[in-house]
Amino acid sequence: MGQRYALLLIAVAFYYLQAFIPIMSVDVPDGAVKASALSALSWLSGYSPHPYHYLTIGLMPFIFSGLFMQLMQWQLKPIHDRFAGDPISSERTKRVLTYLFASGAAAFQVSQMESGWFSYHPLVTWAEFVLTVYCLETLFDMIKPLKVVGNPITLFLGLNVLGGIAGQLTGIEWSGISQVEMLIFAGGVVIGLLFVVLAIRVERWRGMLAFAKAVNTTSSPMAHVVPVKVMRVGMMPVIYAGFVFYPIMMMISSWKGATTGQVLLSTWYYAPILVGLVYILTKALLSLHTPVDNIVQFSRQEAVYMVGGDAEHEKLKSTLERMVKRHALTATCWFSLVLFAEAVWQVIAPDTFTKLGFVGGIGIVILVGASRDVAKHYLKLKEEVRYV
User: Is 360 helix (H, G, I), strand (E, B) or coil?
Assistant: First the structure.
């Protein structure tokens, strides 16, 4: 067990090291690169002293490929069944999509560079960007067999959040901070800790699914109440929504180089769009994780003999559908709270502290989710070792 976590620490060290390795086929003058739309997403970009580095593209192709696979399963079921119907074909299709998105992202990065920056042909730089994605994939393949985390992407997103916070904190000139600003910073830390506690509590929310079941196929009913986790799709809806929404809105917004919160509150209809997108994605992912028709069909054919026959099964179907909508709305309210808390902080806080990523926001959700994932697998491995 100790060897597994030693290898995990090595993988984490290599991941952070990539942020300090510049893209070697370009020579960028100091101050020549302006902040991009993605640079404001600290949970995606992390921290690096270089404008172009081995995490510039980073997790973006893996997140995009995961989102595309989910959309295929949701809206393009025949295509999903054909190209990702079993674990092997699913993994192959996801890998192809990852490198397609990586190639597109690399081409976009190269297109933003000045011709005088290239040390070799631009294709060499493009290939180097794609190579950075292969390096990340190698780390994923190293971590997965260790079974110390459920999803390496979640772990690395959490590392990005920590790296972003550390980078912002080390960049502050603390000697020039006034007492008022220090009080505001202390208040931000308290609010950040409060959101960590809330995020942990939210993970424990349960909804109750009640139905009547016949005992031993007789007519004597028994009431069953099954606890169902509300946040069973985790943080992926808000990650997908933020990943799609913020870059687009920051590119079309007049707030160039602004924070995500400043852009979100800059126009009245941006917030409803983001909240609506979060709800749609949450409901879609919950529907995939709660296949109503399959559950009802199983209850008809297998073990759940429900009082009332077909009428009771139809009632179960409507109950499940209402539960999915209710849980999607509850999760959307929580995600909206953290997004707007971050936005308000970024608007009212002094410029020195606007980009600190611990007052609400997607970063807090990711950080808590990644920590819980690591802790859960640690306890699971510890239990397995005890009985070996």
Answer: coil
Between CA 237 and CA 235 the distance in angstroms is 6
Residue 60's identity, in one-letter code, is M
- For residue 370, the tally of other CB atoms under 10 A from its CB is 24
What's the CA gap between 331 and 142, in Å, rounded? 33
Q: What is the pLDDT of residue 39?
A: 60
**For 280-325, what is each residue's pLDDT tens digit?**
999 988 888 777 666 666 666 554 545 555 666 677 778 788 888 9
Considering Cα of 180, then 181, then 182, then 183, what sign does the dihedral take? positive
Query: Tokens 């943080």 correspond to what residue?
Result: 235
- The whole-angstrom distance between residue 374's C-alpha and the CA centroid of its chain comes to 15
Domains detected in the chain = 1-171 (1.10.3370.10), 175-356 (1.10.3370.10)
Encode pLDDT of 332-388 as tens digits: 999 999 888 888 888 888 877 776 766 767 888 888 888 888 888 888 887 776 655
Q: Which two tokens stand for residue 70?
A: 């989910």
Rounded CA separation 372/214 (Å): 38
Q: Torsion angle of alpha carbons 292, 293, 298, 300, nearest 10°? A: 110
Judge contact between 131 and 52, C-beta under 8 A: no
